[in-house]
Amino acid sequence: MNTLAYGLLGLVARTPSSGYDLMLQLQPFWQAKHSQIYPLLAKLEQEGYLEFTRIHQTDRPDKKVYSITEKGQIALQVWLSEPAAEPVVRDELVLKTYCLGLADENAAATMFVERIQQCREHLDMYEHYIQEYQADAVDHPHPPDHPDHPAFGEYILLSWGARRMKEDIAWCEWVLELLQKRG
Fold first, then answer.
1. What is the pLDDT of residues 135-148, one digit of tens each?
2. What span, in angstroms and rounded, lies between the C-alpha atoms of 100 and 131?
3. Which end of the chain is more exposed for a tag (fewer CB within 10 A), N or C?
4. Is residue 49 a contact partner of residue 11, using CB atoms and an 8 Å limit?
């Protein structure tokens, strides 16, 4: 089973969800298209890790809401107890930065200006979700940054994402300052 499959099991273990809902939940943390998610959900269901309930909709095709089975819970617990694999970095900007000395001056600067814009958009999204979790915290005895809050994992991931975006923005701004020193 691949990492995305375990991620889907984890999301469904927290809240039974449709494929579309799972795609939206994954969006801030993991790039996956519906063409990956739906076949994987079908496979997990066929192998007994998930089951679904068909929900009739009048204006759309019926919706499948997936829930985790006991077999899925066991597989998820085994995966959660294993050490995480080393992260894979596949960022095109990293390769282009390595070759930066070969790039045209304007093209080099544009890469970093564009990355800053991308990071700001992601940062806005993370901060929006963080504010939602903080606003929803009034219904719970603990704030979202407390380990006993039910959304603790999501909250700390969103905070991590926001911190990464801020650090990436600062790094890109630093590179732009250095590029201005070109003779």
1. 887 788 888 899 99
2. 38
3. C
4. no
- Residue 58 neighbours by CB distance under 10 Å: 4
Same domain assignment for residues 10 and 62:
yes
Cβ neighbours of 153 (radius 10 Å) = 13
User: What pLDDT sits at residue 42?
Assistant: 96
Owning domain of residue 57: 3-81
Mean of all residue pLDDT scores within the chain: 93
Query: Euclidean distance between the first and final Cα of the chain, in Å?
Result: 53
The reply to whether 87 falls in a domain is no
Whether residue 163 sits in one domain with residue 119 = yes
Q: Say what the pTM is.
A: 0.78
Residue the block writes with tokens 């070109």? 182
Q: What are phi and psi of 15, to 5 degrees?
A: -150, 120
Q: What is the per-residue pLDDT for 66?
A: 97
Q: What is the DSSP letter of 140?
A: S
96: tokens are: 């282009």
* Residue 50 CB partners (closer than 8 Å, separation 6+): 8, 9, 12, 41, 44, 66, 67, 68, 69, 72
How many H-runs (helices) and E-runs (strands) does the chain carry? 7, 3
Torsion of CA 150, 142, 132, 7, to 10 degrees: -20
